[in-house]
Specification:
- Helix content is 28%, strand content 24%.
- The strands form 6 sheets. Strands 12, 15, 18, 19, 22 and 23 form a 6-stranded antiparallel sheet that branches. It has a 5-stranded parallel sheet with strand order 3-2-1-4-5, with helices on both faces.
- Residues 1-36 have low confidence and may be disordered.
- α3 packs across α5 (124-130) and α8 runs antiparallel to α9.
- The protein is built from 14 helices and 23 strands.
- By secondary structure, the chain is α+β, with helices and mostly antiparallel strands.
- α2 links the parallel β2 (70-75) and β3 (88-91).
- The structure holds adenosine monophosphate (AMP) and glycine.
């Protein structure tokens, strides 16, 4: 599977069945909407890339890189999608920097990319860089923009970066609770450290003030940020960053709540969509640029940052405000972005390493809808052990990305985390959503899926929400 790449759509590019040795010249551009894979990278072929991480996001990274380089991967779990695409795989915990460097040296890696935040926090990029293996991912110091929410807010305030909500930081939970009592309005309660996207509680949305205070008192968090509750619609922009240079990708909207209609507990993300252009249907002209301006100012204040900078924004009546920054691709958002990236992703990595300008990015211009299938009961009381019945054959026009699966002798089974995702790409969100739903038809029993993601009603409700807030 890792040697030959069949390009499925290609009535106009004439590339079906080409092997990696006979790649398309970089100058040939095919029709933007029908092209499934863009031109391949010649220079990338001489690269040996180590990918760290084993989720859906990393499967998307593997799929974007594998055609153009020699790809190796490490992760704590054996993601069958990644194992299939890689020339070599080693089961190593994604935070074990020493073992990762050892493996990288064994395979003569010329580049590395770290998917999950835990590895960045553990200094995996620091150690790989120190071993002379350029890593597309920030070192632990810069990754604090994600891994330490108190640092993140203070950094924005110190550097006068626009879009920062009012905030206060507390080490003592008693003081935080007193602040909640005294504050006139709703607050978002954010543990300073990593919580897998599940630690934030928003007063007036998920919890009451009393519940928020009880949550803090019962926790063993080292610190907490309390910040003004932002009202609006959320969107994500992921940018490739190196040497102060920044290239942005289309906005994506994730769905963090577990149940349809945005009900239930927060999850790692149940699914996401993007439109045919760079902005989403509820965004006005200028909203995307305003968010990119915030990201540019952030990168300017962090000159050593390299890798993916993920901006999570709330579009408010005052424009985009920063909900958080992440130091890596989003999961699921990577699965919206990388499959429509025509520019070989390896060219971004080599340019970053070589100190060249990052390439201007080209996209297919397709809308995308990504839906995760998660075990029943996720995230509070997940049931592991359901058999996964989808495979590359059953997903039709959709793309299949494996996440947390347990490979047994007679097939793949769910664990307690998100199991797999499917992605539809088409010339409208509605058409992409249908492709994703068709791909899920064979999912089998024991899964929960948010079928509302990308459906016309939900997309329209986002537009109506922003219109209502803007008094349109
Ligand atoms: P985070 O872990 O920072 O991504 O936060 C999880 C979710 O909490 C976000 O996706 C938002 O929906 C919500 N959230 C975080 N901060 C705020 C805020 N200041 N106002 C409103 N909602 C927020
Ligand atoms: N989709 C949310 C995240 O990756 O953090």
């Amino acid at each position: 599977m890792s040697r030959y790449y069949y390009l499925p759509v290609e009535q106009n590019s004439g590339t079906a069945g080409l092997s990696r040795e006979v790649a398309l010249p970089a100058t040939i551009r095919a029709d933007k909407v029908t092209l499934t894979r863009g031109p391949r990278s010649f220079s990338g072929m001489s690269e040996t890339v180590l990918l760290v991480g084993g989720g859906g996001r990393e499967h998307a990274i593997a799929r974007a890189l594998a055609p153009d380089c020699s790809l190796y991967a490490v992760a704590g779990n054996r993601n069958p999608g990644i194992v299939d695409l890689a020339d070599g795989f080693e089961q190593i915990d994604g935070t074990d920097a020493e073992a990762i460097v050892e493996y990288a040296e064994e395979i003569d890696a010329t580049l590395a990319i770290v998917g999950p935040e835990a590895g960045l926090q553990a200094g995996v990029a620091d150690e790989l860089d120190a071993a002379g293996i350029y890593t597309f991912g920030p070192q632990a110091e810069e990754a604090r923009i994600e891994t330490d929410k108190a640092f993140q807010r203070q950094f924005m305030a110190d550097n006068d970066i626009p879009g920062c909500p009012d905030f206060e930081t507390f080490d003592e939970m008693d003081a935080a609770c007193a602040f909640i009592d005294d504050y006139d309005g709703d607050l978002a309660v954010k543990p300073v450290g990593l919580t897998g996207g599940k630690g934030v509680k928003v007063i007036g949305d998920q919890v009451t003030s009393e519940e928020a205070k009880a949550y803090l008192q019962e926790s063993d968090y080292e610190g907490v940020v309390l910040e003004e509750r932002l009202i609006g619609e959320e969107f994500t922009i992921q940018a490739f960053v190196a040497d102060g240079d920044l290239r942005t990708t289309p906005a994506v909207q994730d769905h963090k709540r577990a149940y349809e209609g945005d009900e239930g507990p927060n999850t790692g993300g149940m699914g996401s969509y993007s439109d045919t252009g760079f902005q989403l249907p509820f965004m006005n002209e200028g909203d995307y640029e305003a968010a990119v301006d915030i990201m540019e100012q952030t990168v300017a204040a962090m000159p050593d940052y390299k890798g993916v900078l993920y901006g999570q924004f709330m579009l408010t009546t005052e424009g985009p405000k920063v909900v958080e920054f992440n130091a890596r691709f989003g999961d699921p958002e990577a699965m919206n972005t990388l499959p429509i990236l025509e520019t070989p992703f390896i060219d971004v990595l080599t340019a970053a390493r070589d100190g060249d300008d990052l390439p201007e990015l080209e996209f297919t211009g397709q809308a995308t809808v990504c839906k995760y299938a998660v075990p029943d009961g996720y995230p509070t009381d997940p049931n592991a052990g359901a058999k996964i019945a989808v495979d590359e054959e059953t997903v039709g026009d959709g793309l299949l990305f494996y996440a947390s699966v347990d490979a047994r002798e007679n097939g793949l089974y769910t664990t307690t985390s998100r199991s797999f995702a499917v992605v539809g790409r088409a010339d409208s969100i509605a058409a992409a959503e249908e492709i994703a739903e068709d791909a899920l038809a064979a999912a089998g029993e024991g899964f929960h899926i948010r079928h509302d993601i990308g459906k016309a009603d939900l997309v329209q409700s986002r537009i109506d929400h922003m219109d209502e807030l803007r008094g349109a």
